[in-house]
Specification:
Rossmann fold, 5-stranded parallel β-sheet, alpha/beta, homodimer, 23% strand, two-stranded antiparallel ribbon
Chain lengths: 198, 198
């Protein structure tokens, strides 16, 4: 069965990809891009290093614009990020019968609650699988055991999270100061290969 | 890292065992028995067919007696089963740094909520991993793909869930009628080997 995994190049989405592959799914890693900035490149590189097929799905630019409006109004990213995440899952559900992402047990945003998951699965006729059975400690242990990981400050070039395109758009509309206030630079872990290849 | 998986011989606990093994954990399957009835035999057989090491951990008989009291008072099994389940996890946590069970996303009982998981992990210095990222549809697909499964009515001999010893004790204390009213016979799926060996 084909599984489409929403992929950023981070530990979480890399681990769920590994789990699904080991269970026998034909895994394809998918990064959704809205056409404002080519922020899929880091994810494509991580995917290639791990040997997975990687696809870029084009999202509707208005969806990102709407999310950016929400975020600017709110002054914080959670609701806007959840909107983009839900949209990305719906987009992947057009092409795959198993839709997956790296949401962990202790994640707060983006996250679907149980009712949202049931509705998403039923409306789209898909199965949704994430990392809801694992906490951050287990993810960190697994990531250290499985992957070669690079810790670095986020930049426009090394990160494929939604926040890159969102920050880009906020910068354009409202200036860099607000963009970096809402999405500060932070230390990220990016998967850049298998550990055994180090 | 060693992982102790609370094991019944059913689909769910078999799948989490397979996932953990594929991620590199040294998996041991553990069935807790309270000394009233040797209900671990079905689990031991399933484990052996899948090639996992299986252990029986002896639970404190009073814990099962207390749970049975709760269940008889309540007239339904949920609270008593949750007590036994929590106790079994604590018991396994003495021997393993990773403690696991087959609880799925859509399970209601037995289940730890997020706060109970945090408390369990912190008190015992362990990581807890379950199937919280998967729903019943995915579990059924995976089980069909991976395992040779036998569907049959539950009996005293083919089931290693807590309910066997609990039903045994309720029968002794209050008679078979109440025992089978609270825990009716039902169709169960027991893993009896790998699918490729069929």
């Amino acid at each position: 069965m084909k599984a489409g995994v929403l992929y950023s190049g981070g530990k979480d989405s890399s681990i769920i990809a590994v789990i699904l592959k080991s269970l026998g799914y034909q895994v394809e890693l998918v990064t959704v891009n809205f056409g404002f900035y080519p922020s899929w490149k880091a994810a494509a590189e991580s995917s290639s290093k791990l040997g997975f097929k990687h696809r870029i799905l084009k999202g509707e630019p208005d969806v990102l614009k709407d999310a950016v409006k929400t975020i600017i109004n709110d002054g914080f990213p959670n609701n806007g990020i959840n909107k983009v995440h839900t949209y990305a899952l719906e987009l992947i559900a057009n092409d795959y019968s198993v839709v997956s992402d790296g949401t962990r047990r202790d994640d707060k945003v983006p996250k679907l609650d149980l009712n949202q998951i049931r509705s998403f699965e039923d409306r789209n006729g898909v199965e949704y699988i994430n990392l809801g059975g694992l906490g951050h400690k287990s993810i960190n242990h697994l990531s250290n055991a499985l992957f070669h990981v690079k810790k670095e400050l986020t930049s426009m070039e090394n990160n494929s999270d939604y926040e890159i395109e969102i920050r880009f758009l906020i910068s354009k509309l409202e200036g860099e100061e607000l963009a970096f206030k809402i999405f500060p630079e932070h230390l990220q872990s990016r998967v850049i290969g298998w550990r055994e290849n180090e």
